[in-house]
Amino acid sequence: MFQCFQVVQSGITHRSRFPVVMHLQFLPRRNYLLDAYMGTFCPLYLTSLLQALNCLLAVLSNSSSAFLRLTVVAGCLPRRLRLSIGQPLVYLSTIPGSKCFVPSYDPRTVLRERPAQIMKSDAVFDCPVDPTRAVVNHLFVYSEPSSPDRVSVELFTRSPESKKPLRVRLNRPLDETISRFFERLASSMTASKKQPSSPIECTLYRSRSLSVGGLERIEPCSTVSQVFASSEESDGIHDAIYLLIQSQTDLLYKASFNPARVLKCRLEIRPMVDCPVVPRLETSNMTVEESEFAWFVTKTDAWPSEPCHRGFIFFPTEAHLGGRLGLRIIARDAHGRPGLPFGNAKQYNESGEVVECKWRISASPNQSYHENRIQQHHESDFQENTNLQFRVVSYNLLADMYASMDSARNQIFRHCPLECLDIAYRLPLLLRELSHYHGDILCLQEVDSWVFQYYLKPVLSLLCNMDGVYLAKRLIVEEPGPPIRIVTHLDKEKNEGCAIFYRKSKFELIRQAHLPSILSYAAEQSQIQPLMNDLIAAYEKRSTESNPAFDSSIPEQFPVDWSCCVETSKGHCLLVLVLRALTSGSQSGRSGSTPGQRCLIVANTHLYFHPTGDEIRMLQAMAIRHHVFMVREETQSANNAPVSVIIAGDINQDSKGPAYEVLLGNAVTTDSLKHSVLAPPECPHREFQMRPTYVIESPQFTNWVPDFHAPLDVILYDAHSGLSCAHTYPLCSAEEITRLALENTRNVTDEEKPQCRGQPVSECDVYALPNRAFPSDHLALIADFQWPSAKEDR
To answer: CATH second-level architecture of 261-361?
Structure first.
């Protein structure tokens, strides 16, 4: 039996007999755990750890017979070293398999800081198993938000009878006694209903924190809440809980509270050559950056022992064509500690079960159109590494919630093979396309909320060093009657909206100034409110009257209920970010502003879609213009820096429409308000002028579906602020799209070739968007911008 030692701030007091045994555990990249003989531990950074070792060596050097034994755990491979006092500590830097580099350290070095307090105790062990010498297994303890009055416990063991691997899962009420908990545990470990030949005895021990050391037996009358719920980690330091299971073999477990967990893991996108593949993860207390992802490709029934790639994102190559794809995950928390293995395997494996993709790896379509844009990117004068220039991309992704609707599949996109309309096919192409554009700001529309959370945000963060903000549209529901009413719930979100991503090396986020409902904001503005009232009254009248000339202009696939047009358009949102441009020497996160650092307001929106909704889109544009102008005024007052504005999005209207004119700051004419019930209004803040980056003339377009094509997307900017558009990238023509689509159908079966569903499609629209090479019904706009130089700014 050994007593413990004590290290205090002012020095070291020796209270132990030799030899002293310590346990040193290396965790990946961040924290270190120093575990003394009595089981007490505290997380230490490297400096504090070396200080502690220095103090211990100072004590041990007083005895010529003393030695220091270290156990190093690197991954799953233990390494034991015995260091005598005469040997330098440099051996710590040569530990095989260690994931962390530990620099050589001279114990005689005088440290500027005082030794950190490690432990202080006179207690001794009453546990029959030495936790520093025994193999310590994991006891995973966690609770579910849906069941706050219960706690879950998982451990890996072997059946006392058959010796087969066994995974025990218990979900117990917090008010249950430990003795009852032991009964349930022993029952779960017994493979049959017969009494095991050797009784199972369970004991819980608590290793006290810094002030009271040693292992203390926990009384069976204690409750689950007193033992587990009260022992959760706090700042990395808590009372360690040990579980000793004694049967034919003694097993010791150490509780791991709130471990990193993979709740669900699915490979739901088609793996294609040169396209990113990422898992869809639902996790608890897991950090992607700290976790490990191992990808396996095989063309046989067995998985290889070694992965072909490690990392969250995997790009298959041509060598992988036709292979099965699998993934193993070692979940880790923010401190790098391994968590609960994923899956239902009964035998403990840190990396859990293999998650297999249901599709084999296939060839990706030829997207030379995007490759040409990339080539132009490199050949142009745009300099990616300078902070005087930045690139903006605006792109409507075609949300899956719309593409998967029956009306979309059988009417709007009836030309597109269902396989190519599936989000599992389109998503990897979209991810590849976005990453290849090298944008510094991405304004995306029709973004499914789950696509943003599980795919766009992690992929763009890891590949492009970008952060993103998402704003969902408001939820529109049909309430039963009579009469049936269409109602917009401003406090509830639709599963689709807009997103803005910005490169963190060039911009930092200052403020968010969104409009969850553009028209609800418009109804509060004195200049727009009378127009809305007139429009609502006119629409109600129109719903009861017939106008053959006007009604004949409405496309058959877009029926309209005039009585609820305004209500349904209240769901549209405006996403606004105020960014600060970072100079070469500035760092993100600093407060305040320095002269020369410019502010940029980025607004992203998706206006009302209906072909007859010109008046609604005009009112939305008026509200957007007023709101952005007010945000600009507030930003100029609050920041000692010039302010520029960019408005991007899908406005569902070409350059001849009233919404386009309003956004630019031009006067609305009667020609742009055909069949309108409203007189042309006065454009708000006419002095606030915007310019288009693209001037798109027919037959060019940004949206092409059967029987319709038009330039519906915009990137507008405030030129008077000194911001200039240096370059835009050409749009793809219908002929080029058709040529690429034909190339990509040469090697497909007849079933995979375009086959019209429903109403026939004209020959010129057979390869409209989306198709096998183009994953959206829109084309992306790409514009390079130039800040004025410091001399021009003055």
So the answer is: Sandwich (2.60)
